[in-house]
Automatic annotation (TrEMBL):
It comes from the Eukaryota. Involved in cellular auxin homeostasis by regulating auxin metabolism. Regulates intracellular auxin accumulation at the endoplasmic reticulum and thus auxin availability for nuclear auxin signaling. One of its GO terms (cellular component) is endoplasmic reticulum membrane. This is Auxin efflux carrier.
């Protein structure tokens, strides 16, 4: 496959995202004003509670089998490594650049969380359809191998995104709103001190310090005295809450249905008695990617006008996602293959490498909308990372294929 042909294949899904994003930007602009602020919030809730769970269940239940899970055991490890490496590199970047506190978890989310779902579902079949690809001349056979890889990647990525990344964005939103409440309280304190005198002002300051201390530290005096068991119980409770999100629950149910043959035969297949359930979930799941992309484009209008994110932060995210991460991906996959952890299928290794080179997941924007934090900054980061991905993803795809040929 020549470079120009690969360029067309790898850039097509990115161009599609940008085109749909432009439509979303127009719908949110003053010329149309269809995607208002309330419409954004409502669409995000529908995507979070309906479309994304439907997509994950339908994809997993249809494609995953027990033998696949056993032979592809390294894929969740590989995805965990992408999150671990991205988080470590973002921590270093935050120490150097020193962004505002509520931006640090946002930066970690963008550096660690790749678009492990819809892009792979587009790129891998498109590569299989090209003549001269290194994964076999039989297009249908290549697709039949590639789609389960992509579907499993999407499902596993969703589990990580809606637990780890969701926790990061929730923490970022909580910190941001605490900072906002602190800024609102300060003017009121100043007025009361001016009117009531020094003594009353001292009493007021003491009272407000007792109120603000937990906000600034994220803990209360009671929390400081909690034992290890209490803190562990709270951590487990938080983990259970994150695991109970609709996308995570649907992914777990999809795994169970896919792994249990008699359950799968009830829902999946032309002769399944309950196939209408799968057809309905497929129909709803198909709306996930367009809705998320429209919301992304709509947020772009505000991001271009209101973002306060430093350019150095955007450059750091781009360098981590498109320079450091792909190089680490080559090393990890080659090492795993060398010790016999991976099947001999080069397409499987290609998908594992590609997981390190993908642009950030669009679900981060959905979470930013849900928690009402850094929506404009998310839009600007998306704009630059997806523009750069048009070239970076193509280049790394070429490198990966040359290694696997």
């Amino acid at each position: 496959m020549g470079f120009l042909s690969l360029l067309a294949v790898a850039s097509m899904p990115i161009v599609q995202v940008l085109l749909v994003g432009v439509i979303g930007a127009f719908l949110a602009s003053g010329y149309s004003n269809v995607l208002t602020a309330s419409a954004h919030r409502d669409m995000n809730k529908v995507v979070f509670t309906v479309f994304t769970p439907a997509l994950m269940f339908a994809s997993l239940a249809k494609t995953v089998t027990l033998s696949d899970v056993i032979s592809w055991w390294f894929m969740p490890v590989n995805i965990a490594i992408t999150f671990l490496v991205g988080s470590a590199l973002s921590w270093i970047a935050c120490k150097i650049l020193k962004p505002p506190p509520h931006f640090q978890d946002l930066i970690t989310a963008f550096c660690s969380t790749g678009n492990l779902g819809n892009l792979l579902l587009i790129i891998v079949p498109a590569v299989c359809d090209e003549d001269g690809n290194p994964f076999g001349n039989d297009r249908s056979q290549c697709r039949s191998r590639g789609l389960p890889y992509s579907s499993l990647s999407m499902a596993l990525g969703g589990l990580f995104i809606w637990t780890y990344t969701y926790s990061l964005m929730h923490k970022s939103g909580t910190l941001y709103h605490k900072m906002q409440s602190k800024c609102v309280q300060r003017p009121a304190d100043s007025d009361e001190e001016h009117l009531e005198g020094f003594n009353a002002g001292d009493e007021e300051r003491n009272e407000m310090n007792q109120i603000e201390a937990p906000l600034l530290s994220g803990k209360s005096d009671i929390a400081d005295n909690k034992g290890f068991c209490t803190n562990l119980a709270e951590a487990l409770h938080q983990l259970v809450q994150e695991l109970m999100t609709p996308p995570t629950i649907s992914a777990i149910i999809g795994f169970v249905v896919g792994l249990v043959p008699w359950l799968k035969s009830l829902i999946i297949g032309d002769g399944a008695p309950l196939r209408v359930i799968q057809d309905s979930l497929d129909l709803m799941g198909n709306g996930t990617i367009p809705c998320i992309t429209l919301i992304l484009g709509g947020n772009l209008i505000q991001g271009l006008r209101k973002s306060v994110l430093k350019r150095a932060v955007i450059v750091a995210i781009v360098c981590i996602r498109y320079v450091a991460m792909p190089m680490m991906g080559i090393a990890v996959v080659r090492a795993a293959h060398g010790v016999g952890f991976l099947p001999h299928d080069p397409l499987y290794r290609y998908v594992l490498m590609l997981q390190f080179a993908l642009p950030p997941a669009m679900n981060i924007g959905t979470m930013a909308q849900l928690f009402d934090v850094a929506q404009e900054e998310c839009s600007v980061i998306y704009m630059w990372t997806y523009l750069v991905a048009t070239v970076a993803l193509t280049t790394w795809s070429t490198v990966f294929m040359s290694i696997l040929s």
